[in-house]
Amino acid sequence: MSHELLDLILARRSCKSFTDRTVTQDDITAVIEAGLSASSGMNLQSPVVLCVTDRAVRDRLMVLNRKYDFRDRPDPFYRAPVILAVLADRKVGTYLYDGSLVIGNMLLAAQALGLGACWIHRAKEVFQDEEGQAILHEAGIEGDYEGIGFCVLGYPETLPEHPVPTHPGRVFRL
Ligand SMILES: Cc1cc2nc3c(=O)[nH]c(=O)nc-3n(C[C@H](O)[C@H](O)[C@H](O)COP(=O)(O)O)c2cc1C
Question: Diameter of the chain by CA atoms?
């Protein structure tokens, strides 16, 4: 592993405050490509990505996400303008792991491009909801897909400090 990549991994932080600045299509595509390049069980590539930049659809997803958030927050997406929802095919045994790795790659790609990104939870609930199902239908996503997570993207308003302290006692050796 090059030191550059290692440094990037160690410096990555979740962004929880975004500006309104538009993210270029090239950058969005690069993040998605990095996600879809993730390893997958038996190379079945079960995850799909719903890329949302349309403000109205973004807000529909935000309202839905808030519906399942036990915390009372105005915007669980922190005003991020781009929402990359990752879903994966339940029929594939490794779908949950495959989808998670897609989001992991996206978070790192965003960091490499100078963007802010954060994994936002509750995609499973959002896409089980009737309104979430309607959004999938509008996007042409049909099948037994489960929401794995949202990777929200944008330009950071504030950047968290790094590196993040890792909890001790999590490595065991023989
Ligand atoms: C599976 C998963 C779910 C997460 N869900 C949320 C979420 O719903 N809202 C949020 O603000 N952050 C969420 N995060 C981000 C974590 O809160 C964040 O990664 C953690 O605080 C550590 O910070 P770091 O990413 O900067 O290292 C999630 C992260 C993961 C991996």
Answer: 54
Residue 16 Cβ < 6 Å to ligand 1: yes
Q: Which two tokens stand for residue 103?
A: 């989001």
Task: Return the sign of the alpha-carbon dihedral for residues 72, 86, 105, 170.
Answer: positive
Domain ranges (residues) in the chain: 15-92+100-154
Superfamily designation of domain 15-92+100-154? NADH Oxidase (3.40.109.10)
pLDDT tens digits, 22-80? 999 999 999 999 999 999 999 999 999 999 999 999 999 999 999 999 998 999 999 99
Verify whether ligand 1 is closer than 6 Å to residue 117 (CB atom).
no
CB 132 within 8 A of CB 67: no
Is ligand 1 within 6 A of the CB of residue 10? Answer: no
- What is the pTM for the complete model shown? 0.97
